[in-house]
Design goal:
The protein is mostly helical. Helix content is 63%, strand content 0%. The chain has eight helices and no strands. Helix 1 packs antiparallel against helix 8. The longest helix is centred in the middle third of the chain and has 17 residues. The chain starts with a helix and ends in a 19-residue tail after the last helix.
Length: 122
Amino acid sequence: MPTRAEAERLLAAIDAALADRSAPGQLLREIRRFWVDHRYSPAVDGAWTRDPDAAARLDVSEMRRALTFYMRAERFAEGSHTALLNATGVGCLRARLAALLAEGAFEPAACWSLPDVSWVLR
């Protein structure tokens, strides 16, 4: 699961892509880094493109699949990335991502914990 820092980086990349609607490159790089879910279904996980209210109900795993749909859409229809930036689609995902961050849906950071080996030192 992506961490809070990774979610914040994605939010910044979405903001940059929305500001420059013709250049989604950084957004796509961020999606590829932590957000791709290969179990996505184009028919199901693209519902947010047809129903903006659907984006408001996404949980973190559904958000990952929706972002995977967005990233892969260009393979099937040239101009999809720019079209979704210019439509309300990516803005809806941005609003939901911000809400998930506010709800505390992401781990603060990835961390490793070591087993307790204090008994060895006794």
